[in-house]
Every structure is written in C-alpha cells, then in structure tokens.
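Hi D.,

Good news: the full-assembly prediction came through. Inputs first.
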Amino acid sequence: MKCQHCEKPATFHITEITGSEEEREVQEVHLCEGCFREYINQPEEPVEPNASLLGALAQQFKIGKTAEKLAKLDAQTCPMCGISFQEFRQIGRLGCPHDYEAFGAELEPLLLNIHGATEHKGKRPKRNASRRQSELLRLRREMQEAIEKEDYERASELRDEIRKIEAET
Amino acid sequence: MGATVKFDDLTERCGEWLRGSGPEADIVMSSRIRLARNLADFPFIRRCTLADRQAIVKNFQQRIFKDGGLQQAGIDKYLVIDVDKLERVDRQFLVERQLISRELAESEGATCVALNETETFSVMVNEEDHLRLQVMHSGLDLHNAWERINRIDDFLESRLSYAFDDRLGYLTACPTNVGTGMRVSVMLHLPALVLTKQLEKVFRALQKISLAVRGLYGEGSQASGHFYQISNQITLGRSEEELIDQVAEVVPMLIEYERKARQFLVKESQKDLHDRVSRAYALLCGAQTISSEETMDLLSSVRMGINLGLIHDLEIPVVNKLFIHTQPAHLQKIRGAALDRADRNIERAVYLRQHLRQDGEGNKN
Ligand SMILES: [Zn+2]
Ligand SMILES: [Zn+2]
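Then the structure:
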C-alpha cells in the first residue's frame, strides 16, 4: 500500500475517529514514515478518544433514546447467566460469553466505537466449543436456583442433565 | 505440581526480563504480550459464584498444571501459587514483580497463578477473565514473545474449550478486549524526553493511532522511574501480527526521539546533566533513609548516566534489579519482616548502599 501523501510505501496505518458524537466517522489513513512524522506534529485539535468503556457506553446511551426506550433496553436479560443490560451498563463487564449474542444489537455500535471494527481477524481455535457448553452455564444457574427454592427434585434432574453434558464434552 | 521452584526462592533472584539484554535494551526495558481467554462453560468472573471459581481453579490444577503438564507447552520448571491463600505482602510482591495484576492481588476467593522459573511466563486464573496469559522478554523482542505465547495458547486450547465466536473472536468479560484478546506492550525508559518536556506531544500522537501509555505499575502520566508502557488499545478487527507491528513500528521512532533528546542534553547542558547524574548516584550510595519515589527518580538518572557513559562502575542489570527490589513488598520479603513506611525507608537506604557499593567495587554477580 502506498502513502496517501507521496509515493513511498505506507508503514503507518491510522484509524482516525472524527465527527460529532452523534455521527462518528472512522477513517483509515495510510502514511509513510516521513509523512507520519509530519502528521503527528500537526497542531493538536482536541480529540476525545473513547479509551474508557464506561465513557463510551454513557455516550452511546444518552443519544437519541427516550427514558422509556432506555428502560426497555435495560430490562433485557441474558437467558444463560441472567445478567440484565442495566447491570452491564453499570459495571462495564459482561456476565457470560452468550451476552455478545443476547445484547448483540446494543453491543455492535459500542464495539465499532471502541475498536473501529466489528469482526475478528486473526487466530482461531482449532476446535470450537459446542453450543451445549453455554447450556451448561444456564443449567448450573437453574440448579442453584432450584436448591435455593428447596425444589430438590428439580435440582437433581438438572444435576443429571449437567453430568450428561459434562461427560460428552 | 511441576513445582521445582519455591516461592521463597523468588526473593533472592530477579526475572530474566530485567537482565538488560536484547535489542535496544538501553531504552526498551521489556516486551510483553498478554492474552485474555475464557472457558465456554462458565459465566465470566464477575458473575461466578465462589463454587464456580473454585471449580475453574481445580480444573486448571488437575488438567493443566499437575505433573509438569505445562512442559508440553515448552515451560520447563514452574510454580503454581494459590494467590488467595497468600499474605498481603506476598501478593504485593508478585505485583511488584509484574507477575500478577493489582486486580488479582486484591480479589478474594479462588485465584491462582502459574509462573516459570525465569519469570518470563505467567498465567493468572480468575482475574477479570478466566485466564490471563503473559510472556515478558527483555529488550525489544515482541515477535519471539508472540511465538512463545501462541504456542502456550495452542497447548491450552487443545485441553480446554475456549469461549470463541466466529465473528467476534475470543469472547472476554470486557468488550474492550474482545477479538484477539491481546495486549502488546513495550516498556520504555524515557528520562530525556521527560527532562526536555517533549513527552506530552509524543503521547498525544500515540493516542491518535490508538496506542495507550501507562507507567511501570499502570499509573498515569507522571510515571515512576520515567518508565512508560506503550500498548495497543484496539483488539478487534486486526490480526495478532498487525497489532504487534503497530506497536513495533512506533518503538524505533520513540527510541530515536529519546536518543536525540539525550544528545541534546549532552550538547546543550553537559555540565548540568553530568551534575544531575553524579548527584543521583552519590545520594543513592549515601542516603540513610529514602522513599520509594525518590529512589525511582534517582535510579532513572543513574540508568541514563550509565547509558551515556557518565557512570563507568555500574551495570544496567544491577540498576534494573534495584528498581524492583527497592519496592515496599520486596524490601519486607528480603528483610523477612513487616516494616512500616519509616522503617522501609531506612531498609531501602541500607539495601541501596550495599548493592551499589558492592557493585562499584567490582564484585558483580
Ligand atoms: Zn509519504
Ligand atoms: Zn449471559
């Protein structure tokens, strides 16, 4: 790839995030070393990187959402681990791997904001975890709840189911 | 367990990443790569019950760590430590040593770390993610570090089921780590850029290309000892090699800036610089009580002085080691007793005098 300012090969690939809060523009800039040095020595206009996740989250969710809509989003829960979207927003940590699917629509713009991308590129495990393994997570939680409710019959059913899956994987 | 290493042996030694060798080691202290990984069949740590956390640790102890299991990943001798069962000072010691994070040190209930004899590898269990792997090498050595951690990761992957999504990659508790789950970081010693007040400008430029800057122990812009870690902020949408290259490409430029700033100081204020370095050395050799902050500051000047040929009777690895061994928990471990702040300051001065004089007289080891 060639430098955008001259003909030399580009060695610096910069993701520039510009635009207003409402409409972020992500732009790739490709420069050679010489032009990169010039680029970084430009007088600085204030940029606000979204280094902090909670900052990015707050930003994303105060935009164009009515209180009603927000409350509805917040009430969503993950069927596997039981975390609500509101809990995630408050602590900034997800509850289980399945949340990426459960909260997919809300996470997508957030990922774009943080990483400037929404698709993985790079290493992949040679064997993939089966879907049944995230089921384990849900079954364990349900078993715990059954025990708490003293519904031991249900708890032992669930325990058998868990053991079956564990033995298979 | 594959434990031919004992915890208390660590006190006397120092990590291989401090040996001050490897490319550009006068300015680049170390290169580190971390990978965040999670198991597919457990909730992320924050939603784990204590029983979940215990099950995860037990799983690792039995399936990976026992009977020298890590040898299959190229880790010869290693030690497995239940961090939650350690005293505070021992946890702090591991943090100072860069073997565990502050977060792991502070968390309660079923946490452990496995580390190798040379302290170039560690894996934390039940930190923010189920697994945090780390490889740390001396000097600028990212590609070898990647090759090594990749091999270890391959081995673990053959034994465990990682939470992975075809589109999003490795799934992590925090969306800022998803994708590769990788943090690449290089620790640089930049005293001349600090002295010539050019650091702010450089850091703003780095943020523009989405690289983050932190201090030796993760603190902000006033980093102790003038050590700065540069690392990638983005983890999704770029391959591991691309992320490494992104960090690796700016490092030569930062090295060049630092070298230029040093030359500037030598040329424009040779007397002041020499004075600063000599005073720092003399203070470290003669102080009767000294704080950790002052020690880091003075050691930084001495380290630069050695690199500029202003100090001849001291070697970089000795100074590198002193940065770590004069930290609070290290002093208490070395002394074998709990010390309050005032006592630590005295003990620190004693330790510095012993090690600097000994080395100055040529009894290096
Ligand atoms: Zn160019
Ligand atoms: Zn979940």
